[in-house]
């Protein structure tokens, strides 16, 4: 049985969950809420089970349910299983099957808005004194629930030393490092090596996490350059309202469409502090360089000067300077593509099955792999 937080949009965590399902064929997928289209993209359209009803209004505003999700996960009535594999960036690690089988968690991040991103919320959207005090109370309660949920897990896996350090500090656990998979066979460099001079941002339109607003403001200062923004999310309407004419919004794209956008981009922009971030690897598989903020998981996926460049501060001035100085023709697509080959999905699947078998043997359950 595979458990994931949400199947609301097909982002990096959902791509990883799709590989979890591929590693354990036939596993049922359980999510707190989601869309049929996303379940189909994850390869589980005929075997997925949302806890909450798949209503469009609920899915548009599902983040508002954050205070109750830890309690829902703990009370979730799941079927019995030999093994629980959770894919969690928030709540899935708190769920368990009634017969208490071993629980293997691939943790993308501890709950971001109360841990790694808490300062951004308390000094940004919730900076007013009354709101800040209320958020502090909420944060303490959610951190206690998150630590309690972590005690439900027998073994943590994670994608990078950056996230591994977070798990050590937050939960007091040592997580085994298993770099996330990228279906590099779906991404290919443009055969001619040409590009169309437009930059690309791809990802959830969420502030302050993904920082698409930095991209919009940088290109306001660079009216002679163009950027395309692929993705959807709660910040989209406001970003479209304030965006200058050289910023184009593409909406939510399928994998094939994202691959097409990447292979012809001047460069792919990655301004966020992600726990890992699959976008730089997908860009590399497409033979295109990345302009990334020098922090988080990008330090493990981007080679400065070979597969992309870093900008030092997570602000508009720093990103603007990096884009203005960037030469999109000074890169070797074949060398960039070669860097991405190490993230092929089969190695990820083998590592998952090995960890699962170790847990099952230790708990006297039969192994899963031959």
* Unreliable sequence segments: none
Structurally, how many domains make up the residues?
2
Q: CATH topology of the largest domain, what is it called?
A: Rossmann fold
CATH level-two architecture of the largest domain: 3-Layer(aba) Sandwich
Query: Quaternary state, please?
Result: single chain
CATH domain class of the largest domain? Alpha Beta
Main pleated sheet? 7 strands, parallel
Short structural summary:
Helix content is 37%, strand content 15%. The chain has 370 residues and is an alpha/beta fold.
List the helices and strands and how they pair.
Elements: E1 2-7, H1 12-23, E2 29-34, H2 36-41, E3 48-50, H3 56-60, H4 69-75, E4 84-88, E5 103-107, H5 118-123, H6 129-150, E6 155-158, H7 161-171, E7 176-177, E8 198-202, H8 212-220, E9 226-230, H9 236-242, E10 247-251, H10 255-263, E11 268-270, H11 279-285, E12 290-293, E13 308-311, H12 316-324, H13 333-340, H14 345-362
Parallel strand pairs: 1-2, 1-4, 2-3, 4-5, 5-6, 6-7, 8-9, 8-11, 9-10, 11-12, 12-13
Helix pairs in contact: 1-14, 8-12, 11-13
Your description of this structure?
The chain has 370 residues and is an alpha/beta fold. It folds into 2 domains: 199 residues, 3-Layer(aba) Sandwich (Rossmann fold), CATH 3.40.50; 159 residues, Glycogen Phosphorylase B (Rossmann fold, 3-Layer(aba) Sandwich). It contains 14 helices and 13 strands. Strands 3-2-1-4-5-6-7 form a 7-stranded parallel sheet, with helices on both faces. Helix 8 links the parallel strand 8 and strand 9. Helix 8 packs across helix 12. It is globular, with a radius of gyration of 20 Å. The model has no long low-confidence stretch (mean pLDDT 93). Keywords: Glycosyltransferase, Transferase. GO terms for molecular function: glycosyltransferase activity.
């Amino acid at each position: 049985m595979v458990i994931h937080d949400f199947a609301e949009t097909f982002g990096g965590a959902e791509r990883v969950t799709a590989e979890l399902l591929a590693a354990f064929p036939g596993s049922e997928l359980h999510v707190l809420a989601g869309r049929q289209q996303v379940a189909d993209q994850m390869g589980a359209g005929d075997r997925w089970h949302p806890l909450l009803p798949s209503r469009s209004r609920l899915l548009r505003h599902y983040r508002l349910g954050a205070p109750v999700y830890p309690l829902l996960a703990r009370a979730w009535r799941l079927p019995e299983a030999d093994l629980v594999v959770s894919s969690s960036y928030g709540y899935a690690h708190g769920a368990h099957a009634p017969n208490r089988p071993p629980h293997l968690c691939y943790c993308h991040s501890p709950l971001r808005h109360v841990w790694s991103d808490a300062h951004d919320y308390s000094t940004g959207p919730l900076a007013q004194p009354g709101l800040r005090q209320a958020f502090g109370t909420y944060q303490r309660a959610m951190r206690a629930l998150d630590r309690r949920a972590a005690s439900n897990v027998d073994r943590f896996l994670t994608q990078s030393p950056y996230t591994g350090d977070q798990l050590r500090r937050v939960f007091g656990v040592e997580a085994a490092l298993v770099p996330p998979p990228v279906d590099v066979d779906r991404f290919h460099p443009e055969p001619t090596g040409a590009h169309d001079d437009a930059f690309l941002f791809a990802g959830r339109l969420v502030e302050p996490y993904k920082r698409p607003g930095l991209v919009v403001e940088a290109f306001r200062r660079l009216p002679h350059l163009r950027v395309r923004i692929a993705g959807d999310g709660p910040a989209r309407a406001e970003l479209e309202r304030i965006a200058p004419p050289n910023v184009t919004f593409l909406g939510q794209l399928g994998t094939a469409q994202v691959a097409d956008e990447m292979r012809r981009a001047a460069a792919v922009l990655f301004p966020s502090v992600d726990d890992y971030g699959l976008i730089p690897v997908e860009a590399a598989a497409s033979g295109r360089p990345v302009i990334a903020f020098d922090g988080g998981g990008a330090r493990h996926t981007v080679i400065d000067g070979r597969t992309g460049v870093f900008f030092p501060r997570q602000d508009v001035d720093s990103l603007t300077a990096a884009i203005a100085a960037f030469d999109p023709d000074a890169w070797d697509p074949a060398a960039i593509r070669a860097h991405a080959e190490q993230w092929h999905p089969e190695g990820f699947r083998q590592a998952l099955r090995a960890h699962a078998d170790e847990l099952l043997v230790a708990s006297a359950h039969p192994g899963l792999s031959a």
